Give the backbone structure.
Amino acid sequence: MTNRPDGESQPRETLWQKGSRPNEWVIKYTVGDDYVWDTALLPFDVRATRAHIHGLGRIGVVTEEEIRQLDDALDKLLIIWRDGEIGVAFEDEDCHTVIERFLTSEVGPAGAKVHTGRSRNDQVLAALRLYERDTLRSIAHTALDLSEELLHAARRLDSWLMPGYTHTQRAMPTSVGQWYGGFAETILEDVELVIFAANAVNKSPLGSGAGYGIPHIQLDRVGVAESVFEGRLIHNSTAVQLSRGKAEALAVTGAAQVALTMNRLASDLTLFASQDFGFIEFPESVTTGSSIMPHKKNPDVLEIARATFHRVNAELSLLMSVGANLTSGYHRDLQLTKGATMRALGATQDTLDAMSRFVPHVSFNRARLDAAVSAPMLTAGNALKSVLEGQPFRDAYRSNTQAEGRPGADEILATYKTAGSPGRTVVELLLERVSELRRRLAEP
Ligand code: ARG
C-alpha cells in the first residue's frame, strides 16, 4: 500500500485531475491537517458509500454482481484500515479519494461507477454526521452510567453532613448525598441535549450532490437514508450545504454541556482534596507526582478534565463563526469544521471516560466534613424556625445573626422537609429517568 499515513510523500492523482497536477504546496496547504481527521472518518464514509452503492443498485446503475464485488472490497478496506495499513496521507487529499481509488484498484470499472450521483460535498457531510451521531450516542451512554453511579453514592451518603458554599464561603449545611445527586441530575439534563443533538444530525445529506441536486439520474434518496440514517433525510439540497457548521455546532453544544459539568465536578473535587479542606481522598494510583517534591500526589486528571471544557468551548466558537458570512453553497472554508468537531467530541468523550474512572476512587472523610459545618451556618435555619413560631422572616433574620453550638448531623438533616433537599435527596425518580433515557437511546 502506498498511502500509509506515515508513508513516503509522493505525488498522486487527485479525483479532479484532468491534465497537469497543481503544485504540491497547493495540495499541502489546502489539505492542512485534514488528512488526519479523514483517516479517522474513513469507516464512516465507508458506511455511507456502501448505502450509496446499494442505492445505485436499486436504480440499475450497478449490477448485483458489481454490488457484491464492491461490498467485498469495502470489507477489505475496513480490515486494512483497522490494521493501520491504509490511511489518508496529505497527497491523497481526503478519505473520499482513498476510498474511490481503492475500489477502482480492487474491482476496476465498477469502482469507477461509485461516484455516480454524488459529490465530496455531500459525501463529507454524510461521514461527519454519522460520526457525530455515533459519538454523541456513545457520550450519552457513558454519561448515563456515570449519573447512575453518582446516584448510588447519593443514596449511600445522604446522611453525611457537609458544608455547602456560596462565594466559596461557608453558607449552609448540605449532605454528601445531595452533592452527588446534584451532579447526577445535571448530567441527565445534559444527556437530554446530547440525545436531541444526536437525533438532529441524524439526517441523510446523500443525493444532494455538490449542493444543487443530481440531474438525469433519479437516486433512491429515501432508501439510502433508511439504510444509514434511520430513514431521516434533509430534503433540500441547498439546505444540506447550509447545514455544514450549524449541525456541527449543535453536536458540539451538546458535548460542551457535558464537558462543562465535568469541569464543575473536577473543580469541586480538586478543592475538596486540598489538605486545607481534607474532605476527600483518592489513591496514589489516580494521581501524578512532582519531580522535585517527593510528597506530592497531584490531581492532574481533574485539572486536565477541568481545562478540557475550555478547549471544547474554543472549538464551538470556531464552529459558530466559520460558516458565518459565507454565501450559500459549498466553500472550502467549511473544511475547518471537521477537525474542530472531531477534536471537541473526542476530547469530551475522553474526559467523560477519565472522570468516570476517577469518581469511584473518591472517598469522603465523614469526620472532617461534619467538623466543617460550623454553628454560624445554621443562622438561616434558626431564622426559619422562628417563622414557624410566628415571627416575620425579616425580623427573625435580624435577630439570628449569630449561632453558637450546633446539633448533630441527624438533627440538622431532619429539619429538611422538602424532597430534593439535603438528607431528602431524590434518587429513585432520577434512576427511573436514567432508564427512560437509556430506552430513548436504544430506540431513537
Ligand atoms: N475535504 C473537503 C471538506 O472537508 C471535502 C469536500 C471537498 N469538496 C470540494 N469541492 N473541494 O470540505
